[in-house]
């Protein structure tokens, strides 16, 4: 026993190397929790500065900030914040700002919630969604006013938009197409393709008459925006029909012998007097390389 104690005592009293000292210190080191970042004292800042900071929040974040941090509650209800959110979410509000300001809204937060609710209703029933906005005097009964709202609201579902314009309100469709700007867009198939992406024919179950109505409105607008092209509405319409048939020919699995460029030019030239073969050839190449114009 004495020998053991002697050995233990000698080890205990033996000098400790520098490296061992560092190891001991590391073991004894206590990991302190990181200090919680202090919230900015918005209530102590000038109001315009605090509003500028809160303007970077979305509507959801703004509501949460007001609920979680009680000193901020009053500032998150500020009308400037909510009206700017309305104009950023719905560009339509910028065009009718004077009309909106004339109304005695309880708050612009209420306006935001009404427009958000209308958008949700529109996704289920387009007619009800528009009626909801009209009931709150945000929209008028005028077709051009409804068209402006639909054209500037990007988050509306295409299927419901197509259904409303083509099946329920062709008068609004006319004003809607007038808001399109095709100036200096010479590649007709690309313009037509972009236009028809807003009206998914297959998903909306559009018939020939409804699709023809879209082409009539588009052809008139394209002809108006590009007078330098020298293409009348009828010629643009006939070219559009030929392009749609060509796309169908290329993509239908049962059509084995696809239409050649020569055949396309020959067939289309009969209904497009004055249009050069080179121009029609470029139309063919576009469909061949990029794909059909109807989604």
Describe this structure in words.
With 295 residues, the chain is mostly helical. It contains 18 helices and no strands. It has helices spanning 2-13, 18-28, 47-54, 59-68, 79-89, 92-95, 97-102, 108-124, 126-135, 143-152, 158-168, 170-178, 188-196, 201-204, 208-225, 233-251, 261-269, 277-290. α10 crosses α12 (170-178), α11 (158-168) crosses α12 (170-178) and α15 crosses α16 (233-251). The longest helix has 19 residues, at 233-251. Mean pLDDT is 83; it is low at 1-16.
Question: What's the short version?
Answer:
The chain has 295 residues and is mostly helical. Helix content is 65%, strand content 0%.
Beta-strand content bin: under 5%
Cα-atom radius of gyration = 34 Å
How many individual β-strands?
Answer: 0
pLDDT averaged over residues: 83
Overall helicity: 55-70%
Overall form: elongated
Low-confidence stretches: 1-16
How do the SSEs run, as a string of H and E?
HHHHHHHHHHHHHHHHHH
Helix/strand class: mainly alpha
Separation, N- and C-terminal Cα atoms: 94 Å
Largest beta-sheet characterization: none
Tally of DSSP helical segments: 18
